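Re: your question about Probable peptidoglycan glycosyltransferase FtsW

S., sorry for the slow reply, the queue was backed up all week. Below is exactly what I fed in.
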Amino acid sequence: MTEMVYGTIPVRETEPVLPKWWRTIDKWSMSCILILFGIGILLGLAASPPLAEKNGFSPFHYVERQALFGTLALSAMLLTSMMNPHLVRRLAVLGFLVAFVALCLLPFFGTDFGKGAVRWFSLGFASVQPSEFLKPGFVVVAAWMMAASQDINGPPGLTWSFCLALVIVTLLAMQPDFGQACLVLFGWGVMYFVAGAPILLLLGMAGCAVLAGSFAYSNSEHFARRIDGFLSPDVDPNTQLGFATNAIREGGFFGVGVGEGEVKWSLPDAHTDFIIAVAAEEYGLVLVLCIIALYGIIVVRSLLRLVRERDPFIRLAGTGLVVMFGVQAMINMGVAVRLLPAKGMTLPFVSYGGSSLIAGGIAIGMLFAFTRTRAQGEIGDILRGRGR
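Result:
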C-alpha cells in the first residue's frame, strides 16, 4: 500500500549504509561510468606512448597516472554518492569557496604550460585546474540559491545566482577559457529554466551572450584565431583539427586496427582533447557510437529520476550537474568532428587529466547522491494535490 501511495520503496532507518546505498543507487548509470573509464584506459594505451616517448618517460607513464587519478576519482565518486543531499550541499559550498579563491589567484600564481591560457597551478609533480572543481560546487550553490528563492519571503536567490555566474564567467574569460565559461553559463541557464524562468528572458540572455562573443572576437586574438579556424572552408592538414578530421575519415566503420592508428604520432593532445579521434581511427564508428550511447544513458536516466523528485534543490542541482556532464562530452566530440570551434575541453572519464578525472568523479558522485531512490511522494502527486 505504501508503494502505491508514494511510488518508491521506503528506506528503513536501521538499514546499514552499504546495502541501503546499493539498493537506492542508479546501477545502470554507475556501470556506464565504469565502462567509460575502462575505455579511457584502453584508448590511453594507444594514444599516450608517443607523447611519453617524446617527453622521455616510460611508454605507459601517462596510462599509469591516469589509472592512479581514475582510482582517486572513482573512490571520490563512490564516497560522495553515499552521502545524503544535505551533507553533499555543505561540502559542495566549502569546496566551491576554495575553488573560487584559487580561480581568483590564477592570474598571479598560475601557469599556461605554453598553451596561451593561464588555467593551471603547477605543483611540480602534478598540476591543478581550479575551474574543473569550481563547476560542481557552483551548480550546487546556484541550485541552493534558486531553491531558497521559492520559499515564502525567501531571498532573491535567482538574482544572486545570476550575479555569481557572471563573476565566474568573467574570471574564466580572463584566462582565457571561453569553453568553460560557456559551459558554466549554459548550466546556469538550464537550472534557471527548470526553476521557472520565462523563455523570453532566456532568449534575451542568449542574445547578450552573442554580443559578448562578438566583443571577445574583436578583442581576443586567442578567441579570434579559433573562430577563424572553425569558419574557414579549408582545414589545414597540419593543425590539430586537420589531423583529427583525417583520422576520423580513415577509421571508417570498424577502424584501421588496434595500435595501427597514425594520429597519435601527430596530435600533441591525442590523449586529452582529441581522444575521440584516436577511438575513431583505431576502432571506428562502432566504438564512437558506443561511447555516445553510454553518455546518453547516463543523461537520460538521471533526468528521468530527477523529474520525479519533489525537493526543488535536489531537482535543480541534479539537473545542472547532468547537463554540464552531457554538454561537456558533446562539446569535446563536436570539436573533433569540426561541428564546434576548438575549446580545449576533455571528454569526461575518457580523456587523460588529473583535475578533470577527480573533479568529474566528485560531480558524478553528487549526481548519484541526488538521484538515489528516496521514500517520498512524486512531483506528480503535488500537481494532483496529493502531496504530503
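The first strand starts at residue 121 and ends at 122. The first helix runs from residue 2 to 6.

Happy to talk it through on Thursday.
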